TrEMBL record:
Keyword check for tRNA-binding: yes
UniProt keywords, alphabetically: Cytoplasm, Hydrolase, RNA-binding, tRNA-binding
Active-site positions on this chain: 28
Listed PROSITE patterns: PEPT_TRNA_HYDROL_1, PEPT_TRNA_HYDROL_2
HAMAP family tied to this protein: Pept_tRNA_hydro_bact
SUPFAM superfamilies named among the record's database cross-references: Peptidyl-tRNA hydrolase-like
Protein name: Peptidyl-tRNA hydrolase
Catalytic activity, reaction form: an N-acyl-L-alpha-aminoacyl-tRNA + H2O = an N-acyl-L-amino acid + a tRNA + H(+)
Family that this chain belongs to: Belongs to the PTH family.
């Protein structure tokens, strides 16, 4: 399905994850790592918001689109409530929502971008769709790979990155932040053409 996205802001960018320092460095929180990178680029500060999220607002570059960067204060599986509240608070259509998520079905150090569709088994995205009543929003899917051997998927996403992965993690996070910026400025197709190729 084609995305009806335009470069007009504001754009609500939600990084999925779990709250608290104990989860901050886990695979499940890579979406929130991407938001930290975006906020750093714009020198934006996260503040407590009435929608049960922490929010940073502003432009990442002079003359660029306006962003609302949001991290739900809830656990991953109940992310939908804050997202729905944020859309209502800012009077935004879901077509201007970008969800940044971890993705087991994509190899580590790989990005996939899409608009619409189902949740693909991701419980955070499942709850966002349930709470907003639509799947018509953009997803930046950050690959964390399948667990090795017999390790459970839940254990895998709630664990930290391996030493080898940590070497490339800053580049992956930076690329995902670049993808968010390009979706907002140039549209989804342009971002897909850039990030869906071998890197």
């Amino acid at each position: 399905m084609a995305s009806p996205l335009s470069s007009e802001g504001p754009w609500l960018v939600v990084g999925l994850g779990n709250p608290g320092p104990g989860y901050a460095a886990t695979r499940h929180n890579v979406g929130q790592m991407v938001l930290d990178e975006l906020a750093s680029r714009g020198r934006l500060t996260f503040k407590t918001h009435k929608t049960n999220a922490t929010v940073a607002e502003g432009r990442l570059a002079p003359g660029g689109p306006r962003f609302i960067l949001a991290k739900p204060n809830t656990f991953m599986n109940v992310s939908g409530g804050p997202v729905s509240q944020l859309l209502r608070f800012y009077s935004l259509d879901p077509s201007h929502l970008i969800v940044v998520q971890d993705e087991l079905d994509i190899p580590f150090d790989t990005l996939k971008l899409k608009f619409g569709g189902g949740h693909g088994g991701h419980n955070g995205v499942r709850d966002v769709i349930a709470a907003t009543g639509t799947g018509d929003f953009t997803r930046v899917r950050v690959g964390v790979g399948r667990p090795p051997g017999s390790r459970a998927a839940a254990d895998h996403v709630l664990a930290g990155f391996s030493a080898e992965e940590r070497k490339n993690l800053p580049i992956l996070v930076s690329d995902a932040a670049d993808a968010v910026e390009q979706i907002a400025s140039d549209g989804l197709t342009a971002a897909q053409n850039r990030f869906h190729t071998e890197r």
